[in-house]
Amino acid sequence: MANLFQLLCVFEALLIAIFMMYYKCVDPIRVDCICPFKKPSLSDLSVYQNKSNAIAQKPLAKGASVYQSKPNEYKCQLEKAVGLRAIHGSNIYTDFVNGNDGPANRHVYSDLVGWGIDYNTLHEILERFQPNFVVEVGSWKGLSAVTMANWMLKHIKGDCKIIVCVDTWLGTTKAWLEPEQNGNTLYRKAGYPSVYYQFLFNVISAKVTDIVVPLPLPGTMGAIFMQKKNAAPDLIFIDGCHDYACVLEDIRAWYPVVRINGALFGDDVDRKEVLDAVKEAARSLDATFTIHGRYWLLVK
């Protein structure tokens, strides 16, 4: 009997020990015990995981936001290649600060003075080629760029339309020979022109920032840039330096860039140096050109 009594006591003690273990483990979230008597629910597991990972997780910094599952996408492949963000990494128009504390070191006012434009003929050329993608080589203060942008916004359907303006904004030979005359305002600071900021302001004022993209490069370097981007414009407007050597170099550099059945064109064909350069370029490229008012046109 004694042995039986001792066996019952041991069994009772074992039951008490098991009960105490269960009592301590009723909360399955405890990290210092594993409760064999209760299978935790999914909600319990999630709470447990949150608690056990609390030390490893760091709170978001002030002002930080959760990553968006749908990042901002480009409207089209053209914008992805040569759009404003693609070239500059941000919206340079919204970044522009006007005033003495801005990059121009002055308060910029509207100044779209150029050297003349034949609106009717320019519109006829645009109408003929219906361009989504235009490159302008030589933009100065933006008169022709703004004109073409307004036409494209009105007549070209869809969101995918861009004018890339290639210019150093440092002025032409004539601008330095006749500074501050006939629209050749260089807005120099310590001898260095700040016309680029005048161009930005004019584009902002004309409300064509969605379509006009400045590319501050010399003409030939701009052509190389476009080729490396595999970007083939529908139209290329050659309107930079009007000296013979400049016009000839620009046509030869940009002719390989324009798409097949696209065209190069330029103004001031009444100037001998311009006309001679166009003739020589057409001869060397085995191409033909036509004259339309003040513009020459060379179709590829």
Describe what you observe in this structure:
The chain is of the alpha/beta class and 300 residues long. The chain has two domains: 2-52, no CATH class; 77-299, 3-Layer(aba) Sandwich (Rossmann fold). The protein has twelve helices and seven strands. Strand 6 and strand 7 (295-299) form a beta hairpin. Mean pLDDT is 79; it is low at 19-71.
Order of helices and strands: HHHHHHEHEHHEHEHEHEE
Number of strands: 7
Q: Shape, please?
A: globular
Calculate the terminal CA-CA distance, rounded to whole Å: 116 Å
Secondary-structure arrangement, i.e. CATH architecture of the largest domain: 3-Layer(aba) Sandwich
| Contiguous helical run count | 12
Mean pLDDT: 79
- Unreliable runs, pLDDT <50, ≥5 residues? 19-71
Provide the CATH topology of the largest domain. Answer: Rossmann fold
Number of domains: 2
Strand order of the largest sheet: 3-2-1-4-5-7-6
Instruction: Give the % helix.
Output: 40-55%
